[in-house]
């Protein structure tokens, strides 16, 4: 690929090889461009699909091994069957939809980062210098808290929750700095982390459960601050995780399907949303452009879950 020549550590190159061994639609390439701003953030890379492959472009070269391995591990987790999120609904306002998708993705990524950061640390891709670059990235993202409410509380909470996952056992090394600059947000982020991530996820299913829990806990904090809830349980589709037994059950035993007030994001038509009965999380969206008569819904509810999901091309995870 065109771009700057960058020599990666063997651990990063090995991750690229693992991704390419699993990637089903050609090859995955790394491309390097940009300068070195002196900090790392997760907006320093972008993915572009091309005929025959996928290009991951690093737009900053402060720490190419950290940034490249981070992107590759996200991709590797999806290829290995971890839960995915999709945005199939619209609130009717493109700008609001964009904000909702960014925040939902950030929350989802915080949960994913538990696995990703652990892998990076295990392979020596996060060291003391990386931690200082990450801390500098926080300072480049956030302003210090001031007395009284401001419009940056949501961003601070998201950023610091991710920081707690990143630093892990090393958080005490930066706690004084974060407490001085962001005392309210850090306290809320630490409580959220304790409530949702008390135990590291041991499987894709456990991680999915944490994503659902985080969506709800984050909304509770927003409301405690007098801010609007995000309602990701309804807005964001999260691929369901089902056991072999659940796949053999009837649809009506596992899901509830409701007409949505939101429109289908692609077709701008009415939609039906399928919620898991056990956690009330949006698991799939059906386009109401298709004729859904009462009789068809009766037949749908009586179908085996796996037949229904496969016939409607709905992604799902099989619990081992």
What would your notes on this structure say?
There is one protein chain. The radius of gyration is 21 Å and the shape is globular. The chain has 320 residues and is an alpha+beta fold. The chain folds into three domains: 80 residues; 140 residues, no CATH class; 80 residues, no CATH class. 50% of the residues lie in helices and 16% in strands. This is IpaB EvcA family protein. It comes from Limosilactobacillus equigenerosi DSM 18793 = JCM 14505.
Helical content band: 40-55%
Topology as a string of helices (H) and strands (E): HEEEHEEHHHHHHHEEHHEEEHHE
Counting DSSP E segments of at least 2 residues, the number of strands comes to 11
How much of the residues is beta strand, in percent? Answer: 15-25%
The overall pLDDT, averaged over residues, is 94
**How many domain units?**
3
In the predicted model, the low-confidence regions spanning at least 5 consecutive residues are: none
Helical segment tally? Answer: 13
For the biggest β-sheet, the strand order reads: 5-8-9-10
Morphology: globular
The radius of gyration over CA amounts to: 21 Å
Distance between the termini: 39 Å
Largest sheet: 4 strands, antiparallel
Structural class determined from secondary elements: alpha+beta
Organism: Limosilactobacillus equigenerosi DSM 18793 = JCM 14505
Protein name: IpaB EvcA family protein
